[in-house]
């Protein structure tokens, strides 16, 4: 919906480097098999089911991709808990970690 209202909006898909199924499918332009390792980022773990809308919608919406390490996810979870008092799942922490290093470019993108 956001990209329909403002097509210039950048949407970054972010995954743990241990669980790259959707990332690899997007890079390949089709659904491919991908080895999945244990990850603290449960929300991004697992393969892509060809009978769902996930892959097609992701192709339409995601404009950039990023991988973060398990250590970066854990560090982000810890920092969010310490600074904001929130306990977040690893998938959210991976996005926060990716964006925290890009704050200047995000602020200047208006």
Name of the CATH class: Alpha Beta
The best one-word shape is: globular
Q: Which percent band covers the strand fraction? A: 5-15%
Intertermini distance: 18 Å
Major sheet summary line: 2 strands, parallel
| Rg over C-alpha atoms, rounded to the nearest angstrom | 15 Å
Estimate the mean pLDDT confidence. Answer: 83
- The percent of residues in helical segments reads 40-55%
Q: How many E-type strands?
A: 2
Major sheet: order of its strands?
1-2
Order of SSEs, N→C?
Answer: HEHHEHHH
Low-confidence stretches: 103-110
Query: How many domain regions?
Result: 1
Assigned CATH architecture? 3-Layer(aba) Sandwich
| Annotated CATH topology | Rossmann fold
Secondary structural class: mainly alpha
Tally of individual helices:
6
Structural features, described:
It is a single chain. The protein has 110 residues and is mostly helical. It has a single domain (11-107), classed as Rossmann fold. The protein is 46% helix and 9% strand. It contains six helices and two strands, in the order αβααβααα. A two-stranded parallel ribbon has the order 1-2. α4 packs across α5 (90-100). The chain starts with a helix and ends with a helix. The model is unreliable at 103-110 (pLDDT under 50).
